[in-house]
Structures are given as structure tokens and as C-alpha cells.
Amino acid sequence: MLLPREMDLRRPSTNADALGRYYTPSQVSQALIDTMRGIRPRLVLELGAGQGALASAAHRKWRSANYVTVDADLAAASTLSALTFNASHIHHAHDALDEELADRIGIALGSVDVGLCNPPYVRPRWRSSFGRILEEAGLSGALQSVHDAGADLLFIAQNLRLLRPRGKLGLILPDGLIAGQKYRGVRQVLLREHRVEHVVQLPRRTFAKTEAQTYLVVLSKRDGETQQVQLSQMSDMGEVSAPISIPADVAMLRLDYAFHTSSAPMGQQRDVGQVKKTLGAAAHDLLRGAISSSQISSSPVPVFHLGDFPRAHESAAIPTVPEKFIQPVSQAVVLQQSYKVAKAGDILIARIGRNLQEKVCFLPRGICVISDCIYAIRAAPEHRKTLLAYLLSEDGKAALKATSHGVGAKYLSRSDVLNIVLPD
Length: 424
Hints:
The structure is a single chain. This protein is an alpha/beta fold. The chain has two domains: 5-261, Vaccinia Virus protein VP39 (Rossmann fold, 3-Layer(aba) Sandwich); 279-418, DNA methylase specificity domains (Adenine-n6-DNA-methyltransferase TaqI, Chain A, domain 2, Alpha-Beta Complex). It has helices at residues 26-35, 53-61, 76-81, 101-105, 128-136, 151-162, 175-179, 184-193, 248-251, 257-261, 279-282, 293-296, 332-335, 381-392, 394-403, 414-418; strands at residues 9-11, 43-47, 66-71, 89-93, 112-117, 123-124, 163-174, 195-201, 214-220, 228-233, 244-247, 283-288, 341-343, 347-350, 352-353, 360-362, 367-369, 374-379, 410-411. It has a nine-stranded mixed beta sheet with strand order 4-3-2-5-7-9-8-10-11, sandwiched between helices. A four-stranded antiparallel beta sheet has the order 12-18-14-16. A two-stranded antiparallel ribbon has the order 1-6. Helix 14 crosses helix 15 (394-403). 45% of the residues are buried.
């Protein structure tokens, strides 16, 4: 038996167990299985099974199927062996990312009807075999470097190797693969080579000890190129919303329900089938400050930072940059030699922060030195008033919140901001 090599982590998770796992709540397991339709499997496989939550939920739906679970944790064997699958269940205490896994567990490549997986939130130390797993799954070219692949992508690749054509894969995935700019190539490959059927956005705090945004994803292997993807959202009570449908070219940008509904007025559904105007089209520049928070105290000029946005009770209808940060235009040439500066008419927003959607203000005159935690949106005068009003509105705040990423303190990338869809 090989040692559980998933323990060899380059980036262990802070709040997960020693193997980077967050155990799946029963209502989430059931929701994933309920989303997987149109198949009567004979063989169901769960990699990185942990306590077997997904396989257990699957067994309640597909009782006649045979089940195989794999987990590197030797302690998981006792829990998994207690599952009531009777003779239809076989567990293997083995490294799920072993290139030779199919031979080790006695399953032919391309033979599994349903694959289930909640990948660990880790990045394993790179092994040359990982590159071959990604290559065989058709995912090696999806990232700028295969070394950027975390356990989530490696588990997807391993499942695709084992799954039969038109077999179903049910996954629980983090925000990066669903909405991150870095993983746009991954989404493009999955949408082009497989049929991505449904993505369900889960509530934050679904998994204990983390605020990570997670999603249920169901795809059908080699079942034709994706044309439309169904997106839903699960409530805190476990109820899954009615789906919206987005075309594949839109899905390639992002697959999160909140983003695709965020620019609609409160309580209404956005029409995602039509090309919409983005913030990038209304703004002719997006400037990020350059001075770090650690450098602010030694700066000879005031630097506008995250804590300097006017609070709601301190501001008028339009919150503006406090006077002490506004420098005369005559200082622009000198200051621009050492700093990034916002100019009169710019809209300032927070790039990072737990409540970044609440941090929006306007620079009415002069110039202002900004930190690297601030974006300055520079829009043409004819768009400025409308854009500012939107970002200050409840709908605009919802759009910023839905667009942001991260656990705890959220962040906005440049592309996140520029791709915010504006209301008609």
C-alpha cells in the first residue's frame, strides 16, 4: 500500500483537517445528488471520500448501484466501512491522486458512471505524475502553468480520467474555479469539451470554520459542447432557487448565480441572454494606488486608505473624500513622480476589505494620493453621475459584493470591477 501522499502539502489549509478537508453537510450532499438527473448508474465512485457523505446520499437515490470510495486517510476506513452499502460498497485506503489509481483499485479508466467529489482545499506538493493526469484529462493547457493546479483541479482531472463518456460528475468547488480570472481557461475547456449542466451557489459558512464561497457543479463528460448552463442559489435554509440560464460564452466569464443576477433591480431577474453594458465600457481608466499600508505613516503627504472613506452618518447624499486628503492640482506633477493619484471627478472604491461594497466616495476637486488598497474609477463626465449613483445604490453595493472574492476580507481584481454589468 502506498503512503497517503495527499498529506504532503505545500499549502495546508488553516481550518480544515490535516488533509485539507471540510466535511460535507448532509443537506449539501443531498442537494448535489438531487441535481444529478438523467442517469441510472451501475458504478459510483467518490474520491477523497472522508466520511462518505456524498456516497451515502447517492446510495439513498441509486440503491442498486455499486459504490467505490477512496481516501488517503487510514482512519477514514472505519467510518466508511460502517456505511450501509452492504456488499455493494468497497473502500480503498489510498492516495486518490495516484496516477495508477485505476489499477490500484481495480477500476478501468473510462468505466465509472457517476463520480462524486468534494476536493480538499490544499495545494499538494507538485509531482510529475500530476502533469500526466492533467494531460490525459485535457486540462494541461487550461492554466498558464500546470504548477498552478490545486487539489480541486487535480481531483477534477482524475475523475474525468475514470468517468465514462456521458457519465456524470458531481463536484463541490471553491470560488476560484467558478469565478476567478486566473481559471477562465479551465472554465473554457470544461464548457467546450463537456456539458456543464448546473451550478448551485451555496451560502457562505456552509462548511464549518470557513467563510469560503463554494458551489455544487454537475457536468456530463464528453456529452457535447455546453450551450446553456443552469445557475441556482441555495438559501441558508437549504432551499435551491429556480434556475436561470446563461449561454456558454457568458458562463466562461463567471458561473456564480449572484454575479449574474446582481445588476438587476432588487427582486428581479437579470436578462443574461443579451449583451449588457459593463463598467469598463463606461470608464476610460481604472487606477490602483501604489503605496502600501506599511508605507503610509512615513509618507510626507496624506494618503487616502481604507479607513478614510466617509461613514454613512458622516456624509451627505454623495460621500466625498475628506478635505485633508485633497491636494491642489498645482501639486500633480510633483506628486505623480512618486505616487498614484486620483483626479477631480474620480470615483474611489475599496479594492479589499470585509465590507468593501460600503466603501465608495467621490473626489470633487483637486488630486488625492491613494493607497494600493484603493481603485480610482475615471469615467467620462456624461457617465460619471450615473455610475456614482449606481455604485452608491443598494443594487450597486450588491453587485460589488457579488463580484468580490476571498474568505474573510474580500478583494476585487481589475477585471472584476471592469466586468460589473450596469443596469439598463
